[in-house]
Amino acid sequence: MNYSIIRRILGIVIQFTGAFLALPACCGLFYGEKQAIVYAVLAVLYFVIGKIISSIKSTNQAYYAREGLVIVGLSWIVISILGAIPLVITKDIPSFTDALFETVSGFTTTGSSILSDVEALSHTGLFWRSFTHWVGGMGVIVFILAVLPMTGGYNMNLMRAESPGPTVGKLVPRMKDTAKILYTIYFGITVTEIIVLIIAGMPLFDALCISFGSAGTGGFGVRNDSCGGYSSLIQSIITVFILMFGVNFNAYFFIIRKKIGEVFKMSELKGYFGVVAFSIITITINIRGMFPSLYQAFHHAAFQVASIITTTGFATADFDQWPQYSRALLVTIMFIGACAGSTGGGMKVSRIMIMFKTVYREIKKYLHPRAVTNVTMDGKTMDRSTIHSVSVYLTTYMLLFSLSVMAITLFESYDLETVFTSVACTFNNIGPGLSKVGPTCNFSIMSAPTKYILMFDMLAGRLELYPMLMLLTPAVWKNR
Amino acid sequence: MKIIVVGCGKVGAALTAQLSREGHDIAVIDVDNGVVTDISNNYDVLGLVGNGASHAVQVEAGIESADLLVAATDSDELNLLCCLIAKKAGGCNTIARVRNPVYNGEIDFIKEELGLSLTVNPEMAAATEAARVLRFPSAVQIETFAKGKVEIMKVRIPEESVLDGCPLSQIHKRTGTEVLICTVERGEHVEIPHGATILKAGDVISVVASKQNTRDFVARIGLKSRRVRDCMIVGGGKIAFYLAQQLLETGIRVKIIEKDRDRCEELATLLPRATIINADAANQSILMEEGIRECESFVTLTGMDEENLFLSLFAQECSKAKVITKVDRLDFDEIIKRLDLGTLLHPKNITADNILRYVRALQNSIGSNVESLYKIIENKVEALEFKIQSDSPVLGVPLSQLKVKPNVLIACISCGGRIIIPNGNSTIHEGDSVIVVTSHLGFRDIGDILQ
Fold it and tell me: Measured between CB atoms, which of A65, A174, A380 is closest to B44?
């Protein structure tokens, strides 16, 4: 294990956390809030500490997959802790556990909150909370790779550990350029959303925070009723944008390169929009009776489905009150999640598709025991090892999921629906669940140990399990 | 530059490593998924699985905006097809590896008619390198610059040489030749020396001088400068064939020891003047019988690196022959260098260097002025030849007044056919060829040497 490179990169991460804190500080100054001072002081402090740590020369520049995973896992824990400190100091969220839960939930773009009265927070705190979504959506390490000149081919090990999906595709030969392109697209769509929302009549502050929340597919709102209070035009705009952020970013790259044809060939996109369309239509029919018009039912079904499948977690209606079919379907699409290579969480559409195809292949094998069949995606044969790793991933996923549910039942006496969906919505980085953690409720009812389990789930879900599991494996920390 | 490498075998991988270190945008294509995964895990390159001769795959790799395509798969025909398609699809420069001796005879025709920028033949290049060493056996390595007028040569200082204990400033006095010592390797340590550096026996030094001067210099410091009269080659592959051909042309007697009977017959037909022995050279008594003690040079070219190493160690032990060892696959340069193996021959690196030299020259048209490039010490020190343009910042300024970066040495100036080993008062003129030795890798222009 190359500890010196881990230290160096963590130093850089701390430095960047300082830089990120400067933004809410500016926002606070704009509103003349005294909290801004805390953020500004911490920003400088983090920056200096990070600078000192990273400026000690590392003895060995070489690092491999294991260091990559460990660095990413540790980085996310470090930024979450550092990000929680200003919330505690400014007394926006006085309890450290709660503040940590809130920042972990922010960076992992979950959007589960422990706050019952969001509107009581300072603008600075609200801005920071939403901004963590934006940073966490595309990834902190990817951001660092995009702006910092880092040497060597080793950085692939970092990128692979942080970006979601079964395989990591580079868009262009150099990873730095790939990271830059990803962030440019990300930044571009976010700015577009901000502008469109302002034109539609949303206040600037809300537009910024809601855009950050939808870009990272996070889900922190700035009002107690999430997105319920906005006009239906604004809600429709948000629906469209969150669906866009759930799309594999390769699609946008193809559009930039004027290869629209390639976009229509992406089978993952077809699967994604297929699931979205199916869910919206059936839920609309299912909830028709609860709304005055068919359009109203469709409007709310579309918003909730988009919000859940992209793992954002905004709400315009209390879907906990909806009929059982709608509730069950929403929980199902929580697990499916968004496309690989997007900012969304969950298992990813492409993994589910590969799994379905593998199951189909197995059935075919029983019909024709000697048949040679391949699993294909986008017309390309999937490598055996990829299929294997997808199966192992899903198994690990379900295993961790059930373990978390079991563990929480030890500490809580709530009904199984509450416990089950609280794990489902944090593990898949969504936000609200059902029953006592439904869209109108929050996680403040949970005890401290439960909160830490859920925090672990959020991080594991966002980083696709392995970085967090690596941290818990003793063999990793032994010198080879 | 945007470069596409098709085929990630030994040469492809060595080339990719080298090019990505120099900061080019590289896409690699190979049919083998594992190889592509491996290479894109280790280097910052775009990996694609597919047939490199397919137009669709090339387009995916970005052929439309590529500057160069290098086809280095193990099939000559596929390489040529790759280049043809790339030429039509993207109009980029193309380099093909063509190694079949049948095509080798008509390589100029192929190159011309198919519009290739360069063809490389790893076996031929390795053989040429070995032949050059044998013609001049006291050198560890030798390379030419300025159209063959200047040589850069690596030699090991023998015991009791006049150079043992000689400070650099005294070299001219002691040897009476115009030479410049540009690197000194002492064990692991490498330096670009200055006037006060004191040489020791056992050091490997690289020397820049005109052709005649290198000959004199070698004689003065007590090394043999006479070329060998005979050569024993173990292993009868393609390199052995090319090498034997070149040696026979210059009148060196050649004996090839090859295990395979059929191959022996083939070689006997192709090389009527060579002695072909059908035997397993791993057998000591065979080597003795064939006169390993008396032969003047011994080259190991079998397909097994390990066998080559042992044969060479044995030859060093029992004879005074100049030994050349081929190392193809083993990746333990530091360790291998420590063994007494004579000159090492890395066919994949020789080919990769040839291509690299072309890539640097190609950049010429996009702002670089490197005429040729020679790696004195792998990944540490290289020698570059620059053609001086009229707008160069170094024109007409005496060298002592140029603010040159540390670890940069202006080794030689070739001015209208005259070779000057420069001193502080020398100046550089337009049209000169300047050879620069440096430990900064990746210079593109003579201006890069300035601070």
Answer: A174
Regarding whether B444 and B382 lie in a shared domain, the answer is yes
Q: Which of A150, A174, A254, A374 to mutate to test the interface with B (most CBs of B within 10 A)?
A: A174
**Residue B224 has what pLDDT?**
67
Cβ distance A173 to B2 less than 8 Å, yes or no, reads yes
For the segment A403-407, the average pLDDT, to the nearest whole number, is 94
For A151-175, write each residue's pLDDT tens digit.
556 777 777 777 766 666 677 777 7
Q: Distance between CA atoms of B196 and B296, rounded to whole angstroms?
A: 37
Strand-pair category, B139-145 with B150-156: antiparallel
Contacts with B49 from chain A: Cβ below 8 Å:
380
Asked if residue B207 and residue B164 are part of one domain, the reply reads yes
- Residue of chain A whose alpha carbon sits nearest to that of B46: A173
Chain A residue closest in CA terms to B3 = A173
Q: Is the pLDDT of residue B327 over 80?
A: yes
**Half-sphere CA count of A461, side-chain side, radius 13 A:** 37
Q: Which of B220, B254, B271 lies at the terminal end of a domain, its last residue?
A: B220
Considering the domain architecture, whether residues B332 and B404 belong to the same structural domain is answered as no
Is the torsion defined by CA of A19, A21, A27, A30 positive or negative?
negative
Tell me the pLDDT tens digit for each residue of A412-435.
889 999 999 999 999 999 988 898
Q: What residues contact A67, with CB distance under 8 A and at least 6 apart?
A: A1, A2, A5, A6, A157
**Residue B358 is assigned to a structural domain of this protein:** no
Any idea what the CATH number is for the domain that residue B179 is in? 3.30.70.1450
User: Looking at B192-316, which runs of residues are DSSP E strands?
Assistant: 204-210, 230-234, 253-258, 275-278, 297-300
Q: What whole-number percentage of chain B has pLDDT above 90?
A: 21
pLDDT surpassing 60 at residue A480 = no
The reply to whether residue A175 touches residue B44, judged by beta carbons under 8 angstroms, is yes
Instruction: Work out whether strand B139-145 and strand B118-120 pair parallel, antiparallel, or are unpaired.
Output: unpaired
Residues of B contacting chain A (CB within 8 angstroms) = 2, 20, 25-27, 33, 40-47, 49, 62
Which structure tokens are listed for A277?
């369309």
Find the closest chain B residue to A170 by CA distance: B46
Structure tokens at B296: 């003047």
Q: Based on the domain organization, do B426 and B319 belong to the same domain?
A: no
**In contact, A125 and A473? CB cutoff 8 Å:** no
Does residue B332 fall inside a structural domain? yes
Q: Pick the residue from chain B with its C-alpha nearest to A150.
A: B44
Helix axes A175-199, A249-256, angle to 10 degrees: 90
Number of domains in chain B: 4
Out of A1-15, A369-383, B90-104, B217-231, least confident range = B217-231
* CATH code assigned at B286: 3.40.50.720
Give A155 to chain B, closest Cα distance, Å: 8
Q: What pTM was computed for the model?
A: 0.80
Asked whether residue B320 falls in the same domain as residue B399, the answer is: no
Average pLDDT, stretch B390-413? 81
User: For residue B398, what are the domain limits?
Assistant: 371-449
What is the pLDDT confidence band of residue B369, given thresholds at 50, 70 and 90?
low
A360-A363-A364 Cα angle (round to 5): 85
Q: Do B256 and B338 lie in a common domain?
A: yes
Judge whether residue B141 has pLDDT over 80. Answer: no
CA distance to partner chain A, nearest, from residue B46 (Å): 4
Q: Are residues B89 and B45 in the same domain?
A: yes
Contacts of A155 in chain B (CB under 8 A): 44
CA nearest A427: which of A466, A389, A401? Answer: A401
Looking at B89, B120, B151, which one is the last position of a domain? Answer: B120
Residues from chain B that touch A170, judged by Cβ atoms under 8 A, are 40, 46-47
In-domain check, residue B395? yes
- One domain, residues B255 and B290: yes
Residue of A nearest to B66 (CA): A173
Is residue B409 within 8 A of residue B192, CB to CB? The reply is yes
Mutation target to probe the A interface, by most A beta carbons within 10 A, among B2, B5, B44, B45 is B44
Contact B43 A170 (CB under 8 A): no
> Is residue B130 a part of any domain in this protein?
no
